[in-house]
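COURSE: Structural Biology Practicum
ASSIGNMENT: Worksheet 4, Part C
STUDENT ID: 0417
INSTRUCTIONS: Below are two proteins. For each, the amino acid sequence is given first, followed by its C-alpha cell string. Answer the questions at the end about the second protein only.

PROTEIN I
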Amino acid sequence: MPTLKVCALYPELMNIYADRGNLLLLERRCAWRDIGFELVGAGIGDPVAQDADLLYLGGGQDRDQRLCAHDLAEAKRDAVHAAVDRGAVMLAVCGGLQLLGDSYELGDERVPGVGLVDLHTVRGDGPRLIGNVAIEVDLPEAAGIGGRRVLAGFENHGGRTRLGAAEQPLGRVLKGHGNDGQSGFEGVVRGNVIGTYLHGPLLPKNAWFADWLVARALGLDELPPLDDALEDAAHAAARRAAGV
C-alpha cells in the first residue's frame, strides 16, 4: 500500500477549529487500511514539503492569521503553487479558506493571500456567521466516492467571502450561512484545491469526505471498506444538528 504524506501549514498557529482532529482522522483512516501515513509541519520560515500528497491549512486567531498570511504570501507562495500544480490536494478550513485568495480585508488592513483561487474576503460590521451548517456537494468520483453528497459541520466566521465569477463553490447551502450569508454558496473548489468554513471538526463528521481526500491525493481506484457505524452516526448527528 502507498503512503499518504500530509504537510500541515502552520500547525501551531492555525489550529483552533479542531484541525488536529481532522489530521488524526486522516491518519486513522489510513492506518485501518494499512496505508502509510506521514505528517510533517511547515511553520513560519519552514519549507513546504514538495513531496506531500496533501496540504492542510486550518484556522487561527486574527493575530496568528496575519503572521501566517505574510509568511504564506512571501515565503511559501511559489512552493504551494508548485505542489498543487504537480497534483497535490489542498484542504483549507475557515481561516485557511480566507487565505486561498488574493487578500482578506480586516478593516483598513489588507492581509495577503496565497492566490490559488479567485476569492476575496472582507471582515464585515455585521454579526458573525455562527451555527450548524449543511451543504450539498457534487464531487468528481475518486475510488467510487463522490457525486452528490452532504457535508455537515459548524461555522463561526466574521469574514464575508465572495468568489470570482469563474470560481465554483464547494457546495450549495442547505442550512446555515455559507460564505457570506447571502449567496447560498459555501466554500470553493478548483481542481484539487478545496476551501470551506465547515469545522467542528469537519472530517470526523464526514468520514466519507476524508476517504475521498485520501483517494484523490493518492490516485487510488478503490479503498477497502471499513465498519463505519460510528462514523455514520456522527454524520447523522451533525446533519440533525443542522436540521437536515
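PROTEIN II
(use this one for the questions)
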Amino acid sequence: MAGRSVVGPTALRMMLGGHLRELRERAGVSRTDAGWAIRASESKISRLELGRVGFKERDVADLLTLYGVHEAHERDRLLDLAREANDPGWWHRYGDVTPEWFDAYLGLEATAELIRTYEIQFVPGLLQTADYARAVARLGPSGTRPDSEIERLVALRTRRQRALDREPPLKLWAVIEEAVLRRPIGGTAVLRDQLDALLEATTRPNVTVQIIPLESSGHAATGGAFSLLRFPQRDLPDIVYLEHLTSALYLDKRDDVETYTQALELLASTSPPPQQTERQLLRLLQRLA
C-alpha cells in the first residue's frame, strides 16, 4: 500500500475558509469590515474564504473575535486547522518544476476520493507511463527543458499515481478521445507501452476508462478538457478544474459544477461503455503491431 488518504493543505484551507465565511455571514459582518479587522482588503477576505491563500493565525484569531466566537474549544479547533493548512504537502518538494497555480490542484488531487476527467490531448496524468510522461514534459511551452527538470516532472507524476494504491484508493473515471490514443507522443514504442498500461489499468476496480471513437458525431463537452473532483469531507464542495497554458480555473459554484457534471455524464452515457474499452485498446494496439 502507498499510505492512507490524508487531507492536504489546499483542502484544509478551503474548509477553514468556508467556516469563516459562514461565521462572518452569521455575524452580519461585511467583507470590508472583516478586512479592516485584520488590516487587509475586501479582496483578501474573499481569497481567504475561498481557500486561495494561506492563513496567519493572528488573522484567524482576530476574525473569530470579530465574529463573536469566544468559546475556547471552537477557537482552538479552528486555529489548529489554520496551522495544519499552512503545512506544505509532499508536492511542494517539486515546486521548482511546477507553476504555482498547479500546487492547488495537486493538493486537491491528494485529498479527492473521486476524480472524473475528460481528456482531448493527453492520457490522464494518473495513468501515464514514465516514458509517456517524459515525452509530454518535453513538449512544454517554455522550449527545451533540461533533462534534470524533465526527470523531476516524471518523478512527480509517478508520485501522484500512488493515490490509486492508497487506502482507500482514489477512484478515477476517465473519458478519453480516441485521437489521444492514436497520437504517437514519444514515438510508436512509447505509445504502445502506454496503451498496454491503460489496458492493465482497466483491470483495477477503482479505475474506469471510456474511449470516444473518432467516428463520434460530436458531444456536449466542446470547451476542452476538464476534471471534476469530489471529496470525502462534507465541508468541501465538488470542484471543476480547467487548465490553461499559463493558469487554471477552479470552479465550485453549484451552477458551474452542475453544468460540467451534466456534460460529463452525457459524454459517458453516449460513449461506448467501459466494458468495450478493452476491445478498443486491443484494436488500437493491433494498428501499432
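ANSWER KEY EXCERPT:
Q1: The mean pLDDT is 88.
Q2: DSSP finds eleven helices and six strands in the chain.
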